[in-house]
Design a protein that fits this description.
Blueprint lengths: L16 H11 L2 H14 L3 E3 L38 H4 L23 H9 L6 H12 L11 H7 L8 H12 L11 H9 L6 H12 L1 H5 L3 H8 L3 H12 L21 E6 L2 E6 L7 E3 L1 H8 L7 H31 L1 H6 L9 H8 L3 H8 L3 E4 L2 E4 L7 E3 L5 E3 H13 L9 H10 L6 H10 L5 H4 L3
Parallel strand pairs: 2-5
Antiparallel strand pairs: 1-4, 2-3, 5-6, 7-8
Helix pairs in contact: 1-14, 4-5, 5-7, 8-9, 9-12, 16-17, 19-20
């Protein structure tokens, strides 16, 4: 072929750096947004926080510090967004707790000892030989965060150096010493053994004997609420089984959990919803909005003859300020549109939630569905009924006999109400729940009820049955 030159015209969409930054900021959560802004503040000296010298207590300036000149607030133009667990049943009845001071907002509890530190301090007071003490300390290090020994003793013995000449029998003796320490149940190799260790410390009576028999041999039957087989295998009547069940539920299946360092996660709502003169209104949370401005010195440099070197940084700072303001404006618009459609939910609870999809909000505001999806992800709304992610207010619809539609969120709320009010001796099956909803005009298949019930972490009917 003979080479030739051809001229063709074509169109393609190009995202400018400013638009790319706008999209990225919109999909960030409040925490991620502040992290991104902190990074940009370090990189761009033309950008600074407006409240950097206002929200702190006054202090004497150091000799190396100079008085910072005041800076006017940078104006941001308004713009519309466009574009484009067998002990799980027992564990759920136990909660460890502790009162935290309201002023303590730290994420850890460094003043509390860890489980291993607590056990080693007790081990130092036990009269044991150095060899036995070393074996117990080895087992302490092998415990998980819940206080369980999940690694077999044979495997632990195989990991020791040959000079130790350790045999599994020595580790078994060390394990018994470990299981005599506090908290009760530590060093167990299964939930049944953990509960049995705690029961053996209680005074001996008929209820304790039945409970000990259950946790050692029939814990799976108790978790499955198979009371018929439990009565046959234990020889206990309903009253004895009921008392044994209450005793077992009062035990702690996770003895090491009280020493775990729990990281607290706080949610900062982006929007606050209040009822003003019988109208629900959404407003931005000032604590979630970073206040930024242009550094006055850089603005003066850019205006002078030496501004060529800082003009690009100044422009990037202006873009960021505008995009942050635009982000919160879009969040507010979407939030108010959601509030207008879900006002009955705010009045009466989730049973009054109406069906809502992203497309409906997008068409109302003239935005793209992808924009609504970004806005409603990891953005939170504080209401009189609690703080919810914006996605909480969206849900698919289920047809009703009257030709209308009911929200899947409202149906899940009705299922919770029905299960909470059911007779524990004769709980409602999925088919019966579907029948009750059908009597109320909501046509839902049994398999849909099962799906919603599992999403709500409600056990099946056989596991909800009580003596």
């Amino acid at each position: 072929m003979k080479p030739s030159l051809q001229l063709r015209l074509s169109q393609h969409l190009t995202l400018t750096p400013q638009l790319q930054q706008s999209i990225r900021l919109l999909q960030l959560s409040t925490v991620e947004l502040n992290q991104e802004i902190d990074r940009l503040l370090m990189e761009n000296p033309a950008l600074e926080r407006e409240d950097s010298d206002e929200g702190e207590a006054p202090r004497a300036p150091s000799k190396q510090e100079a008085a910072a000149p005041g800076a006017p607030e940078a104006a941001a133009a308004e713009a519309d967004w466009s574009g484009a667990d067998v002990a799980a049943d027992i564990a759920s009845n136990w909660r460890s707790g502790g009162d935290d001071e309201e002023s303590d907002r730290s994420f850890g509890t460094p003043d509390l000892p860890t489980l291993r530190d607590h056990l080693r301090s007790q081990l130092s007071l036990v009269n044991l030989s150095e060899r036995d003490r070393g074996f117990v300390a080895l087992l302490i290090d092998a415990l998980d965060e819940d206080g369980y020994l999940t690694q077999p003793l044979e495997e632990i013995a195989a990991l020791l150096v040959p000079e130790a000449e350790a045999v599994p029998e020595e580790l078994s003796i060390a394990l018994r010493h470990l299981q005599n320490l506090e908290p009760a149940g530590v060093g167990a190799r299964s939930p049944g053994e953990c509960l049995a260790l705690q029961l053996r410390l209680l005074p001996d009576d008929a209820v304790r004997r039945v409970a000990l028999d259950i946790v050692e041999k029939h814990l799976e039957l108790l978790a499955g609420r198979d009371y018929t087989r439990l009565r046959a295998l234990t020889g206990a009547d309903d009253d004895a089984l009921r008392a044994a069940q209450r005793l077992i539920q009062a035990l702690n299946p996770r003895p090491g959990a009280a020493f775990a360092r729990v990281e607290a996660r706080y949610v900062i709502p982006d929007v606050i919803v209040k009822k003003v003169r019988n109208v629900w209104r959404a407003s931005l949370n000032p604590d979630a909005m970073p206040r930024l401005r242009i550094n006055r010195l850089y603005a003066e440099l850019a205006a002078g003859s030496r501004g060529a070197g800082v003009s690009s940084q100044l422009q990037e700072a202006r873009w960021l300020i505008k995009n942050v303001q635009q982000r919160f404006d879009t969040i507010l618009r979407v939030s108010q549109a959601i509030v207008d459609r879900q006002r009955h939910c705010l009045e009466h609870g989730e049973v009054a939630m109406r069906p809502l999809v992203l497309r409906e909000i997008a068409q109302t505001l003239g935005l793209h569905e992808s924009t609504i999806s970004r806005v409603t992800t990891q953005k939170f709304m504080a209401t009189p009924r609690g703080t919810f992610e914006l996605k909480y207010f969206f849900g698919s619809h289920v047809a009703t006999e009257a030709g209308g539609a009911a929200s899947s969120t409202a149906i899940r709320a009705l299922i919770k109400q029905l299960v909470a009010a059911e007779d524990a001796h004769a709980p409602l099956s999925d088919a019966r729940i579907a029948q009750v909803l059908g009597e109320q005009g909501i046509v839902v298949a049994r398999r849909t009820i099962a799906k919603y019930r599992e999403a709500l972490q409600i056990p099946p009917v056989n596991q909800r049955k009580a003596l």
